């Protein structure tokens, strides 16, 4: 470091005036000023360049690096689902789709496949960017930049693959419903299942009160609708965890002009955290006159339905389990949702949207996937994949609840009569 004595000597010589200095003093001043310039300007500039512009060579030791990963994916059918959370065919199709339709481009050094693979490692295995850099032989800055680019492209994909149905489409009867004798013709107005689920997030201390939920952690309350094909048809991913499910629904209906409100005589099946109102069919609740069971666990471990209300609730819970199973597959596949890294809250919301889009992409593309196959075999879910209901409080019935109460009673009568005549 340039010592204080030298700085003092420069000031002393300059104070005498350059014309009053001897030849030796001028040489001394010139040397001191050169040393000062090198110490204060040149060395910091070189240090900055080395730190931010002179990249370290890619680390490819220990069998790491994209080329080694790529050669592992092709011959081994089990490798790609383990490493990237989808089959090799799904992965290559996803890369082509993101490049062709959503603007993702390769660079001189990084292919589309490598960029997407790094993104899938982060989302599918919740690996931090530093570890992904080690695995792929890339700098953390490179991983961060490519993560952002793939996230943007995947968000655009999600906008197309999470397709909100129009009113005309909601008039149609789902094909899978008509062939399932457990629900047809009783739930002929069914157009989807709706529920909320919490995704833990990291927020600044001043925002924790807004995002703090009943489980004592910060979260987003994600409201979603899905169909019987296990496709998300609508999501609302902006509500903080402190919001009750009914408040999230009201927020979505008030703020989103494209919210898919069912037409007359059609409805989404919802849990007891929502009011039984026009377009939303909720189960019977317990009252002072007696307990009415609803959860599948109470029927699995106890006696069969004792009356028409419990008969309705059991069928309703079985039908509504499609949304819980969908949440279960989604969270199981994309492990970043269980413990977000320290991204901004906006990035965390974007990841929710992107991973739901990838969920639909895999399902729509008809690629084999063990996660979907596992839950499709278990239709009477016992809260195995989805999380338990968070909203067992009684929601207030509003004016149009009488109409849905009549629909619910009619379904219950049909189910109970069918059970008695068997």
From TrEMBL:
Cofactor requirements of the protein: a divalent metal cation
Intracellular or extracellular location(s): Nucleus
Major location category of this protein: nucleus
Annotated ranges, domain DDE Tnp4: 194-360
Record Pfam families: DDE_Tnp_4, DUF8040
InterPro entries hit by this protein: aa-tRNA-synth_II/BPL/LPL, DUF8040, HARBI1-like, HARBI1_dom
Gene Ontology molecular function terms on file: hydrolase activity; metal ion binding; nuclease activity
Domain DUF8040: 73-153
Keywords: Hydrolase, Metal-binding, Nuclease, Nucleus
Gene Ontology terms: cellular component: nucleus
Family from the record: Belongs to the HARBI1 family.
Protein name from the UniProt record: Protein ALP1-like
Protein's organism: Cardamine amara subsp. amara
